[in-house]
Amino acid sequence: xxxxxxxxxxxxxxxxxxxxxxxxVVVVSVFSVILFVLVGIEGGPPQLFNVIVxxxxxxxxATGLALVFGVxxxxxxxxxxxxxxGAYVSYFTFTPMNKFFLSTGSKFxxxxxxxxxxxxxxxxxxxxxxxxxxxIFAPLRHRTKEGWIMNxxxxxxxxxxxxxxxxxxxxxxxxxxxxxxxxxxxLEFMGAFIAVDRIVAxxxxxxxxxxxxxxxxxxxxxxxxxxxxxxxxxxxLVGIDLDFIQTLTFSLATGTAAISGASLLFMFQAYPTVGLxxxxxxWYVVMLVGLGNVAGAIFGGFIVxxxxxATQLFIGLSWQSVVPTAVMILVxxxxxxxxxxxxxxxxxxx
Amino acid sequence: MNSTATYQxxxxxxxxxxxxxxxxxxxxxxxxxxxxxxxLPNFYPFSQEYIIRWLIMGxxxxxxxxxxxxxxxxxxxxxxxxxxxxxxGAYTSGIFANTTPFLLYAPGLNxxxxxxxxxxxxxxxxxxxGILTLRLRGIFAAVLAWFLGIALMGLVNNLTExxxxxxxxxxxxxxxxxxxxxxxxxxxxxxxxxxxxxxLVVRSNIxxxxxxxGQNPDAARASGINPTxxxxxxxxxxxxFAGLLGGFYAHFFGSLTPSTLMHTSKTVEVLAIAYIGGxxxxxxxxxxxxPFVFFIEALRSNLTSLPGLHLVIYGVxxxxxxxxxxxxxxxxxFWAVAKVKSFFKKK
Lengths: 350, 347
Description:
The complex is a heterodimer. Chain A contains twelve helices and two strands, in the order αααααββααααααα. Chain A is an all-alpha fold. In chain A, strands 1-2 form a two-stranded antiparallel ribbon. In chain B, helix 14 crosses helix 16 (309-324).
């Protein structure tokens, strides 16, 4: 919303006040650039590409999380389980489908198999989201709105517990994974070999985020979603069906998480608690940029991925969860509403 | 004349007893149940070793629920790093009591002493957590505690020289004995102590201040309550007892791994008990923990072909209660008592 100042009138004083106003963003951006350069020097292009792949996925997961929080005020703890469901659905559709496609020998079918599996996972995620919203959140929402954020949070905690253990119960604790989606040699890019799967995963993340963005910005329903996130009562006054919008939002978020779970199946095998690490990182992202900030989540995804990569490179793989957590604790203490200082309706009531 | 006088005297004696029981934080019914619980493992069906083990787990969970509810039910901040604090106490105590020479540090102190060191350590971290969450409310405080828990667990996983990391360490036991009965009395004593201390705290003016802060921090501050003091005090005390219980865990099971002890899902188990028991009552979680552990364990041992079913039931119960009956068991108890009383009054 900042009005563009002509370059000629931009004095150094203006610049200073601007930096002062957005101090957390500036600090984080400067740090990210330094980290990016360091990672680039130490790890070279493969590491940088790794940052982009994981960053895209964290961004995709975090947009769902931010959307659910912004529109429905639900701090979603079971988001990782949507990821898990996506991984499972993709595994169970891809394996038999690929077998069949290989037997037909058609190149087109073999190449479109993974995409179909990922789409199936996304659809299954959407359906799961609708079921969860209708069974769990709608009754609570209709009963009372008092202490909503905390209650919703604990409900999602219980939900995650049910989904994880229900999966263990029905499918067992075994790992189910595939070595790769595309059985083709890795591409060479600036002296680094990059698996095709990673490129496809990044492309899917970009396409999904892009279409979500387009949907929220350009369509009538998307505008209705944004209206609800700004002011529920006002949205109701102009005739927006709140129940429909909230179910849709939840289903979209679950669907995108399932898509990311499906497209990362070659990295994260499907097992009941697979969603935990992605959940942590998605939460780091939303806490970094501020709860409910959808646009910021895209930016934040890459920063968190960068932090993760840097920790891996300079400190060690096993510290991956400790260092980003410590940084996020710092962010929470210094800037509780995130580096963009986002204001979400209803957050102060709790 | 005489008989009425003795009756009067009896009445006052009984009332004196009741008021004494109340002054240490129990109702007569609760104390009676506790005494039954204490002598229970001496009689046949309950004297089998596996049942005593269930009772120990029940008491352990009950004590955790009390310490958890002290924060969640009164100042309304869900301490999502509770299990990590407990694990911190367990590991500290385990390390100080360690005699295994291949670890970095092996002072081999007496476990009866080291559980207090573990409790103090957890209390210290709880103090820091209390200070960190001062500016935050609700979800932010919960997430901060959660992140701290993840960080602590990662730390324990990585300091392999002290903790052997994911391989797990084996602390010495309190007493070298094949039967579980002594341990039952240890955890029962701890449970009663924790309950009485916390109950006396919440019943005093401090408890009132907690509730005020939990409902509306700004209003509490406006009426002259210093939230800083009370928040930090609450967190410290809750974490201290969590650490103490962790010490018990370490020297009872004799085996510690980060993922079975400090994982977020462990916090969720305690949270479920505290919520099913009823928020802000302390005794709700305590009472419900025992039948619950029996129910869950019976389910687990009878349905070995279905691993995880008991945990699914856990989650379903928690979600159902939170949606449809947020008052939990203690709310139900008060409702039932009020119903019975009004029924007798009508007659």
